[in-house]
Amino acid sequence: MGTVHAKIPGETPQNLNGIQKETHIKEQSYETNVKDVDLQQIQARVDKINIDGLCRTKNDIVEDCIRDLFNAKDFQQVLLKAHKARVNLDELGCFKNIGVYIDTSKGANATNDGLEVTFDVKEHKRLTGGISTQVGNNEGSVLVGLRTPNILGRGEKVQIEYSRGSKRTSNFNLSFIKPFSGKNRPSLRTSILQAHSEWPNSGYKQLDRSLQLDFGFYSATLLKHNLQWEGTIRDLSTLSRTTSFEVREQSGSTLKSSIKYMMSVDLRDDVIFPNTGSLIQVTSELAGLGGNIGFFKNEVLLQDNYSLFEDIVFQASLMAGYVSAISKEKKVTIADRCYIGGPLSIRGFDMRGIGPHSDSDSLGSNAFWAAGFHLFTPLPFRPGQGGFGELFRTHLFLNTGNVGDLCLGKASKGDIVEILKTNVRISYGLGIALRLGNVARLEVNYCFPYKFDKADQTHAGVQFGIGVQFL
Fold it and tell me: Lowest-pLDDT range, 206-215, 276-285, 319-328?
């Protein structure tokens, strides 16, 4: 329910002796004449919608974004539906500025409760580009992009992006994106990609050349679905002379053809430092529709946030994954297996530091689970409150998890539980988290590995982490 505070100033008294007395009486009148107005009790309807600033954009795609405004029954619904319409227009990618103005209805067809809503838009140029920085997976990268937005007038876009990371990663992406009309906001994306990455903790480097088709839609306001097909030529090679034999024997080129389904719903009030809300992400991938790679992989991430007191938030996270081969003729490589450990998952361990190793190279496993419990608070004594200090949070954490090789078809339920709970890893610690805009955060933690296996690679003491998604 929306609330408006309405000021009802009293009449100015006569024969006031000086400005100070007048000011005092007006302040007293202001404090004692405030009442709440329920926006749901204000009858309102939208008689007319104006769109100012359209040039290349077609009318039909815009009308689909704003049509629901005419169904508003009161002033609160007008505000909410106008905001939703603005979000829909912004998601088209046609406009760089969108202003919303609400006024009383005018003209011969105006009604008593009628309103007139105007969207003032400014379209993107036909060709845009720029250089920016990205943060993720514990590394920073420079991104160079070139875009041609709204080519045919209905949100179509061609974009070319190239990025170079601080850990010798590089990515090239040529994409065509086409949004469609409809309440589910469907969109189609076709991409040609090339990605190079190095994994020193596993002793290999990887070059992927891919063709990808992605169809996305919303079944509810915040419930997003993506269905992908991907064909990838992968080249795995050793990273150094010390790479273990178990990794060397998987070197070479492979062809992977897979379909992937992703579902996500994000109800958090903030992506970086949420106070309340939940996050659910589910991913399922079936590879083997051609090529010599075949597996079925499932991953899930759950997160919930509770505001205990003012600015004190308890966060609980759980992630798990399982991959299994689908036939003896098709293989599962080291690039397809599951890994945990590192500043973005179980802190106090090296990246991919948990699980089986061969000559210090992490080999991964086919199943894992990990959980994190966190307590975020403001900085002690609140320095910089309301300003620079709001970018920081102190951080207490407890992380736990395990990896193991399972065969769900043969193992009993008791065997599965026993494998996953045997030799559980535990770490705890404290540190400081820094917000980096609205896209990532930086953590500086002092970690204490408490329980670990002799084959694990621990990282006691100070550990840095930078990324978007943390456990």
Answer: 319-328
Return the pLDDT at 190.
95
The residue among 419, 315, 461 whose CA lies nearest residue 374 is 315
- Residue in 32, 96, 93 with CA at minimum distance from that of residue 65: 93
Residue 246 host element (H or E): helix 245-248
Q: Dihedral sign for Cα 232, 238, 240, 246, please.
A: positive
- The contacts of residue 373 (CB under 8 Å, 6+ apart) are 314, 315, 316, 317, 397, 398, 399
pLDDT digit string (tens) for 246-261?
999 989 999 999 999 9
From CA 390, how far away is CA 24, in angstroms rounded? 35
Tokens of 42: 């204000």
**Tokens standing for 426?**
């535990």
The tens digit of pLDDT for each residue in 412-436 reads: 566 666 766 778 999 999 999 998 8
pTM of full prediction above 0.85: no
Please tell me the least confidently modeled range out of 128-137, 158-167, 385-394.
Answer: 128-137
Q: Kindly provide the residue ranges of all beta strands, DSSP E only, lying in 295-439, ordered along the sequence.
A: 295-309, 312-325, 357-358, 361-362, 367-377, 392-404, 425-436
Backbone angles phi, psi at 68, to 5 degrees: -65, -15
Query: Can you tell me which residue has the tokens 């982490």?
Result: 465
Report the residue count for the chain: 471
